[in-house]
Amino acid sequence: MPSHRKPRTRIRNAAPAVGITTAALASVSLLAQSAGAAPGRPKPTVEEVQRKVDDLYRQAGTATESYNRAKEATDDQREKVDGLLDEVARGTARLNDTRRVLGNYAAEQYRTGGMASTVTLMLADDPQAFFDRNHLMKQLTGREEQALRDFETERAGIAKKRADATRGLERLTASQEALRAGKQDVQTKLASARTLLSTLTAQEKARLAALEEKKREEARKKAAELAARQEAAARKAAEAAKAAEAAKKPPTKPGTGTGTPSASTKAAKALAFAREQIGKPYVWGATGPSSYDCSGLTQAAWKAAGVDLPRTTWDQVKAGTRVATAELRPGDLVFFYDDISHVGMYIGNGMMIHAPKPGAYVREESIYYMPIYGSVRPA
Fold this sequence. Notes:
Layout: H1 20-34, H2 46-112, H3 119-122, H4 134-139, H5 142-198, H6 202-246, H7 261-276, H8 294-304, H9 313-316, E1 321-323, E2 333-336, E3 342-348, E4 351-354, E5 363-366, E6 372-377
Antiparallel strand pairs: 1-6, 2-3, 2-6, 3-4, 4-5
């Protein structure tokens, strides 16, 4: 780095911890409601608590994706600003070198008496203004004239980069504000869910666990039904392919195979990576290797297969070919909820690997555990 450049502190994300007041107020409010503190308001049933907690976790998932998008924008903007500032520093060094050359030319002309009146003009803040003065240009050699033009070009370029860096800093500040707001939003919702769960008695918690297991069992049954349909479809496609081969004709339903070898290999690598992460904790905003959120896991898995996916569920759902649920293959991404706030990786037989929610671990689960939005085949 040029020695003239003043030391500067790299801009870092310093998102502060969530303010206690916001989370505390939300928690106290929920606690009061759950405990029946409000006159005439009955304590919510376990079923109502389950729905409320599920909704809070879903909202936290949406807020997490917003945070992920803001973090990605902040990181990108920080990198651009740092790059621009480095370019300004290098350009300033070149500008100073050219300024010294011009000073030598001016001094030489002054000694010969040819440019006594133009020494200060050449080194002024706006040399371009004097290009229009023919008496100055006539006294410059071709080499000197080119040096002066280079000086002005370099200075104009630096001025533009400085302006770009200033605008970049403004955008970075806005991104950092969005990042802080997103972090607070996630943590507030999670705190509210924990507070609501803490109001349950041991008996109510047991009832809640039973309801959760019933929900999983229903989802597993739907997964088994999908697996049976897919197996029947695959068997029918294989029979059609065999018949077509025997008759030297193309299959009656092209496109029902397992895909090209390269695509199958990539999907297998992505799926193998996802399996290795089973048991690692969900942490919102995490991309590995020790913990993941839902989109962080799918991004990392497909990256291991050589495919770059965007960071958020909202962008991942656009990164590939849309496929119907009945046509899912291992490695496909399945998205959930109307707001596309969750994603998992299909492993076959109606099951997926996903990072569920805070307090849970990467695991296998039925794709019917949550309402399906749609599915995508990345490769």
